[in-house]
């Protein structure tokens, strides 16, 4: 699977995803919309009372009846503003709860779907870029929803209200304001839309910077060992300069857009006031009407001016959300088939039947591959690097799908059982185990999440982890660092073995499980492995033949095929073969298990 490519933001896909998540909370959404309507209705009505107040003030002597009328208008003005204040409180409380709940759902969906992608997906994409996409997807929702419910929707309600009010006073003023508003918003939309490729390019460069940072941090030891800090700084500066160039293009374009908006704002304010002067000359406008128009124009300008700024933020959010949508809308390469059932392991017999597999449609690594492992049989796969040994275990775990043929466990095709049940039935100890940046207790318990502390400690003792864990002041609560960097390679392997002991699955796969152990540690761990393998079907991969010489059968692999099989002694009895050659090369450099 190639790395993900940047795509053009799909606005409707984003709205559909965000809309469905929002509609899961109808009462909060209704309260948010209702609050916004109440606020903008009050914003339209309140200036009408202010207009009446000004007209009363400018209408004549301050008689008692006029003062009484002024106070009556003030009471109504206060009541309308109080209603708007209530609307603000309702909207803010509702929108805060709504956005938080929806963002939790979006985080959960993005994380769950991301983890559902196949092994190949993760090794083909930067870790930092993927994590950034998940966080952006959820956080972009807040930006989108805020702009729609706090800016665009209120501006629409306010504009409709003042157009209606001014049309009742003068149809010409109302029509002029309506036409200007529609034209202004349309021009802003077209300008912002035309800049979207620039914003998408900036988002892509920003993701590349994040991916580069993640890659450099994870490989810090390599950078240090090769004295390559200057080289990495140079590469990082190149990435930053590309981001700077993309950002500068966006900001320069925004500056021109703001300039156009300013000219439009000046034009409408002058035009409306000029029209009001002509109407006043004809006796159709009062001083209060001038105040009303000025309040409306300033209010509308503030909202519409913000639309341009909010459109920019909205399109940035589109670009950010689309990055995760690319992942969510990418089908999982490995999925449970409809009607998949849990795997039932009764004996542990494994059969590879005419299996064919190739990476990315290249030349087949396995072709017409056949292998049968009997229940509770302990077998080893040996051979040169690239012979296909690790590929077999990855296919068994369904990290990859076979191109043709079948793999079955106790007669059940693993392609037709649930992936979760398959992997729960297999304990896997990889050559290079990676640990979580969590405590030693949590890392070992990952083998069986419901295990008690006592069971974790017992598994650690059997894997000979207890010796080095006891040296730490925090013991099992010691944090191991990202990917377990605070531990040595041998210690990480012993933690992985402890996990497998705790999991106690009926099938055990060991991929060079003792490759990072020194001779003394290996001698200790062999006893633990022997106990671990009891009553289980075991597949072990090893380059150090001393670790597998006592297996029930050894399969010698070359170019994706089994070229020889038998016990250690049977293979050595053959005249000239690959196993004998490998054994002779390693002779004298291994630990005998007697």
Write the layout of secondary structure elements.
Blueprint: H1 11-22, H2 26-57, H3 64-115, H4 119-123, H5 127-169, H6 171-194, H7 196-218, H8 220-225, H9 229-281, H10 287-328, E1 350-357, E2 366-373, E3 378-383, H11 389-396, E4 404-409, E5 412-413, H12 419-424, E6 426-429, H13 440-445, H14 453-462, H15 466-469, H16 489-503, E7 507-511, H17 519-533, E8 537-541, E9 553-558, E10 561-566, H18 568-573, H19 578-586
Provide an overview of this structure:
The chain folds into two domains: about 10-330, ABC transporter type 1, transmembrane domain (ABC transporter transmembrane region fold), CATH 1.20.1560; about 335-425 and about 550-594, Rossmann fold, CATH 3.40.50. Helices cover about 60% and strands about 10% of the residues. The protein has helices spanning about 10-20, 25-55, 65-115, 120-125, 125-170, 170-195, 195-220, 220-225, 230-280, 285-330, 390-395, 420-425, 440-445, 455-460, 465-470, 490-505, 520-535, 570-575, 580-585; strands spanning about 350-355, 365-375, 380-385, 405-410, 410-415, 425-430, 505-510, 535-540, 555-560, 560-565. The strands form two sheets. A six-stranded mixed beta sheet has the order 6-7-8-3-9-10, sandwiched between helices. A four-stranded antiparallel beta sheet has the order 2-1-4-5, with no helix packed on it. It starts with 10 loop residues before the first helix and ends in an 8-residue tail after the last helix. The model is unreliable at about 1-10 and about 590-594 (pLDDT under 50).
């Amino acid at each position: 699977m190639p790395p993900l490519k940047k795509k053009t933001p799909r606005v409707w896909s984003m709205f559909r995803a965000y809309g469905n998540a929002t509609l899961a909370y109808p009462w909060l959404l209704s309260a948010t919309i209702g609050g916004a309507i109440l606020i903008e209705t009050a914003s339209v009505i309140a200036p009408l009372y202010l207009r009446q107040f000004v007209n009363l003030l400018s209408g004549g002597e301050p008689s008692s009846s006029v003062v009484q009328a002024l106070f009556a208008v003030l009471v109504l003005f206060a009541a309308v503003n109080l209603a708007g204040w209530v609307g603000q409180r309702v909207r803010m409380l509702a929108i805060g709860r709504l956005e938080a709940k929806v963002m939790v759902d979006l985080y959960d969906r993005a994380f769950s779907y991301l983890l559902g992608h196949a092994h190949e997906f993760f090794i083909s994409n930067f870790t930092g870029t993927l994590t950034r996409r998940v966080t952006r997807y959820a956080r972009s929702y807040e930006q989108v929803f805020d702009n729609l419910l706090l800016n665009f929707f209120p501006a629409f309600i306010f504009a409709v209200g003042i157009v209606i009010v001014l049309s009742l006073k003068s149809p010409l003023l109302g029509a002029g304001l309506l036409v200007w508003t529609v034209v202004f918003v349309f021009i802003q939309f077209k300008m912002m839309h035309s800049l979207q490729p620039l914003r998408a390019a900036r988002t892509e460069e920003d993701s590349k910077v994040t991916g580069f940072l993640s890659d450099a941090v994870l490989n810090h030891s390599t950078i240090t060992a090769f004295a390559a800090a200057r080289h990495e700084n140079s590469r990082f500066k190149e990435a930053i300069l590309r981001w700077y160039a993309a950002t500068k293009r966006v900001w320069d374009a925004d500056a021109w857009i703001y300039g156009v908006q300013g000219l439009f704002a000046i034009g409408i304010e002058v035009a409306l006031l000029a029209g009001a002067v002509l109407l006043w000359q004809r006796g159709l406008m009062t001083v209060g009407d001038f105040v009303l128009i000025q309040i409306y124009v300033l209010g509308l300008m503030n909202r519409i001016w913000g639309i341009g700024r909010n459109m920019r933020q909205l399109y940035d959010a589109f670009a950010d959300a689309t990055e995760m949508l690319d992942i969510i809308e990418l089908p999982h390469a490995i999925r449970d088939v409809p009607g998949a059932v849990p795997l039932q392991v009764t004996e542990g017999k494994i059969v590879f039947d005419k299996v064919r597999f190739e990476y990315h449609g290249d030349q087949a690594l396995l072709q017409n591959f056949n292998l049968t492992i009997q229940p509770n049989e302990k077998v080893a796969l040996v051979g040169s690097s690239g012979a296909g040994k690790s590929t077999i275990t990855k296919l068994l775990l369904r990290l990859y799908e076979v191109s043709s043929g079948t793999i079955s466990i106790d007669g059940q095709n693993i392609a037709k059982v649930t992936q979760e049940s398959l992997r729960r039935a297999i304990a896997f100890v990889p050559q290079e185990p990676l640990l979580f940046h969590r405590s030693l207790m949590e890392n070992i318990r990952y083998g069986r999440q419901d295990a008690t502390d006592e069971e974790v400690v017992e598994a650690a003792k059997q894997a000979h982890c207890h010796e080095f864990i006891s040296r730490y002041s925090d013991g099992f609560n010691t944090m191991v660092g990202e990917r377990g960097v605070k531990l040595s390679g041998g210690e990480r392997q012993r933690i992985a073995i402890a996990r497998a002991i705790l999991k106690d699955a009926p099938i055990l796969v060991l991929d060079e499980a003792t490759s990072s152990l020194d001779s003394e540690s290996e001698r200790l761990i062999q006893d633990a492995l022997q106990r671990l393998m009891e009553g289980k079907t075991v597949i072990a991969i090893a380059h150090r033949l001393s670790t597998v010489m006592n297996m029930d059968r050894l399969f010698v692999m070359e170019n994706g095929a089994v070229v020889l099989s038998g016990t250690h002694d049977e293979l050595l009895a053959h005249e000239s073969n690959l196993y004998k050659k490998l054994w002779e090369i390693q002779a004298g450099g291994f630990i005998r298990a007697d």
